[in-house]
Specification:
Layout (H helix, E strand, L loop, with lengths): L1 H10 L12 H22 L3 H20 L3 H9 L1 H11 L1 H12 L2 H4 L16 H16 L4 E5 L6 H4 L3 E6 L2 H8 L9 E5 L2 E7 L15 H12 L3 E5 L6 E5 L2 E3 L4 H11 L3 H13 L1
Helix pairs in contact: 8-10, 8-12
């Protein structure tokens, strides 16, 4: 019996796995790498980089064949031009790389850290009065089918787009917004930018989104609203001139035909009253 066991042990020795010791650090490292790979693949799939990545995979397969069959001339050319290829990839993927860095910069852990200071909008959020004025203006323009494009600044500064328009610097009121977007007025064409409780500029030009999933029925106004929300963390309100419907764009997502209550609730969320509520709770506990 012992000889049989020894025979089986000797013939199945190749199936034995090596001794692997796993530490807590290794587990954390595996989890971090898994999350990074998942986020990278998810980002590539939901962006225009997916099409470019497939082209890169085809080129990588061709390069593998070159090295596999030892094509010396091609290998020499590839080695000499590798630095140019790397620079080209950086240029081609520049929008995607910029979006990744901007996403990292938007994390709350950075916004609230002592290195980066307090959230810039903590003192610059708009008031309840501004919410009422924005909602009132959008509802009235919707009923009159007056096209409007209102960009509300959040953490990222919109000076780049303000420079394309005309400086206003006026308190946000429903009548002001209605007058700006009234047909055949000098300021009706383009976007209005709101910072805090003030309208800073009008007739501003915004980048158009090239998102292919957007409906073909949407016009330039909606694509501009989605475009600026893709490039910044701003919240954009769009009133359709054709249908009178109110839409909202945030972080590249367009929500169409929202109601007055939905618009108000969304604006209240953007007021960032969390800090105020915490202070009230602490005051009540102290009392």
């Amino acid at each position: 019996m012992s000889s049989l066991v020894a025979w089986i042990d000797s013939h199945l020795n190749f199936l034995r796995l090596p001794n692997v010791s796993v530490t807590a650090t290794d587990i954390v490292e595996i989890l971090i790498l898994t999350w990074l790979v998942y986020r990278l693949l998810n980002f590539i799939k939901t962006s225009h980089a997916w099409t470019l990545l497939r082209g890169i995979l085809i080129i990588a397969a061709a390069l593998a064949a070159v090295y596999l069959f030892q094509m010396d001339t091609l290998i020499y050319i590839i080695n000499q031009g590798m630095s140019i290829v790397i620079i080209t990839l950086v240029v081609v993927f520049q929008p995607e790389l910029r979006k990744v860095l901007e996403t990292l910069g938007e994390r709350e852990i950075l916004n609230h850290s002592f290195l980066f200071g307090q959230n810039r909008n903590a003192a610059g959020r708009f008031s309840d009065r501004t919410v009422d004025e924005l909602v009132r203006a959008c509802v009235e323009m919707s009923s009159e089918r007056t096209g409007a494009l209102i960009v509300i600044e959040q953490n990222e500064n919109l000076h780049e787009y303000e420079r394309t328009g005309i400086e206003i610097d006026a308190l946000v009121t429903s009548q002001l917004l209605i007058n700006i977007f009234e047909h055949n007025t000098p300021l009706h064409d383009g976007a209005v930018i709101v910072r805090g409780d003030r309208v800073t500029a009008a007739t501003c030009y915004l980048p158009l989104s090239d998102n292919k999933s957007l409906s073909k029925a949407l016009g330039t106004r909606h694509r501009a609203g989605v475009g600026v929300s893709e490039m910044t963390d701003s919240f954009t309100i769009i009133v359709s001139e054709e249908t009178g419907g109110i839409s909202a764009a945030y972080k590249g997502e367009l929500q169409r035909n929202i109601t007055e209550k939905m618009l108000r609730d969304r604006l209240v969320e953007l007021q960032n009253k969390v800090v105020v509520q915490k202070k009230k709770r602490r005051t009540r506990r102290a009392g």
